[in-house]
Amino acid sequence: MSVPQDLFYAKTHEWVDLNDGIATVGITDFAQSQLSDLTFVELPEVGTMFEAGDEAAVVESVKAAADVYAPVGGEVIEVNMDLEDNPELINNDSFGKGWIFKIKVNNEAEVDDMMDADSYEELCPAD
Amino acid sequence: MNAWSVSFNEPVHYQQGLDIQRRLLKARQENLIPDTVLILQHTPTVTLGNRGRANYLLKTEEEYRELGIDLFHAERGGDVTFHGPGQWVLYPILYLGGNEADSHGYLSNLEEIAIRTLGDYDIKGFRREGKSGAWTDAGKIAAIGFRLKKWVSFHGMSFNVSNDLMGFNTIVPCGLVGEPVASLKTILGDGCPAMSTVRDSLLNHFSNVCNRELERFELEGDLPDLLNDLIKG
What we know:
- The complex is a heterodimer of chains A (127) and B (233).
- Chain A starts with 7 loop residues before the first strand and ends with a helix.
- Chain A contains 4 helices and 9 strands, in the order βββαβββββααβα.
- The longest helix of chain A has 7 residues, at 29-35.
- The model of chain A has no long low-confidence stretch (mean pLDDT 94).
- In chain A, strands 1-2-3-9-8-5 form a 6-stranded antiparallel sheet. A 3-stranded antiparallel sheet of chain A has the order 4-6-7.
- Chain A is of the alpha+beta class and 127 residues long.
- Chain A has a single domain (8-106), classed as CATH 2.40.50.100.
- In chain B, the strands form 2 sheets. In chain B, strands 7-8-9-10-6-2-1-11 form an 8-stranded mixed sheet, sandwiched between helices. Chain B has a 3-stranded mixed sheet with strand order 4-3-5.
- The radius of gyration of chain B is 17 Å and the shape is globular.
- In chain B, α1 crosses α6 (225-232) and α3 (106-120) packs across α5 (195-209).
- The longest helix of chain B is centred in the first third of the chain and has 16 residues, at 14-29.
- Chain B has a single domain (2-232), classed as BirA Bifunctional Protein, domain 2 (2-Layer Sandwich), CATH 3.30.930.
- Chain B has helices spanning 14-29, 61-66, 106-120, 184-188, 195-209, 225-232; strands at residues 2-7, 35-40, 45-48, 70-73, 81-83, 87-93, 126-128, 131-136, 139-149, 152-160, 213-218.
- Chain B is built from 6 helices and 11 strands.
- Classes of the chains: A alpha+beta (127), B alpha/beta (233).
- The interface between A and B is medium-sized, with 26 and 30 residues.
């Protein structure tokens, strides 16, 4: 299971890539593997304001639906429209093409409350 | 890992079951209670999953009312299904986001519980590629649909024992056209085990498959105070 070193991680299995005040958010490889083949992603609307911990999206596989939380607060400035037709991008490339939404972050210090790759790996089951 | 189970002897209204699950879900997210499994029967109800399509309902809302069947949109995964007395419904409220998560995945575990339970009565159960649930040669016997919030599960699996399967004729179960639905009763006839026997099978296999030691309670018995409050609201 892959856990890239340069990202921040939430206990609820989201990842954040923070660049110039913009947080790109997705779910981790562990999360997608637990949900199996995704069939639908309910995306947030651009312009929505979230606080850290708010329900932001829903990912669905054949029999499971799981909430995705905003790891940091701010305004949604972009969502990954490719997921509408190709939700399996999350299964195939959870840390890349499977990103879900981007947030213009209100307070960058909020990522300090998130985990680094090593701490996150300890939360996940050993392979 | 220790967990609780609570069994209900009398059929529970769908909304009441949902309210109980939501209270337990919140308590589990806050780590106030251990993983907890509810096992109950519902009064007659048709439920649609999150993405469930209304064209799999073969009656109008009015007709469902006349048949005494409640209709609910549930926020679980999966499509349309029917619940009624004589069917066990398993609602595990489990934290699945930690390092004890099973690599086979929760969906596979639920299917395994149904298949092993069938094995207790010498019925061959199996999975079908691309279709979740548990199947027998006579048809589909267990249906699955669940939701995770903060990686705690709710909703779960239903398993047909001796329920009147007529309710399934009012829907296209799980959106699968032309697929028969089976119960232990349709397969075993007079040899169908008692509901309580099947409940114990399901809980035993839950315990083994999900690797949780169950402390078992009945609604009518002595419950821990906190559990009692959460269930009775």
